[in-house]
Amino acid sequence: MDCYLARCLDTEEVAKYEWTSDYNAIAPCDFRILRQDSWEKLEVKTTMGGFNREYHLSYSELLEAARSDEAYRIVRVYEADDTSAKMRISCDQREFGQTILDAVSALPAGVALDGVAIVPAEAMFDAVTELSAPPVDDED
Fold this sequence. Notes:
This protein is of the alpha+beta class. Helices cover 24% and strands 31% of the residues. The chain is built from 4 helices and 8 strands; from the N terminus they run αβαβββαββαββ. The chain has helices at residues 2-10, 20-23, 59-67, 94-104, and strands spanning 16-18, 31-35, 38-46, 55-58, 71-78, 84-89, 115-118, 129-132. Strands 1-2-3-5-6-8 form a 6-stranded mixed β-sheet. A two-stranded antiparallel ribbon has the order 4-7. It starts with a helix and ends in an 8-residue tail after the last strand. 19% of the residues are buried.
């Protein structure tokens, strides 16, 4: 994802980005990107399986999605192997996250939610982007 975002800087699709989880392993998002004048949060969910394989949102990620002042998007990387993958980026998940929190708000005392499993819906994600591994530097 870092290589992909670096290319987005070159094409000016993204003005700036931060690899949040690189300096804070428990951050509720992996990256923050600046598009024009607004920041967005990206949570990357990767699988070697197909697009529709469920992914897990931790409770802290769910809270961040629901309560963030910035758009919160899921980056679904799938059919990933050593040389390539496919990627789709979701629409803003703040409303969806709040809907989930509202639904589980009536859990009985003593029951704690640690996360949810999500099966991606086609309508939640944009078009497929093909990713390829960065070239290997053989000069080492």
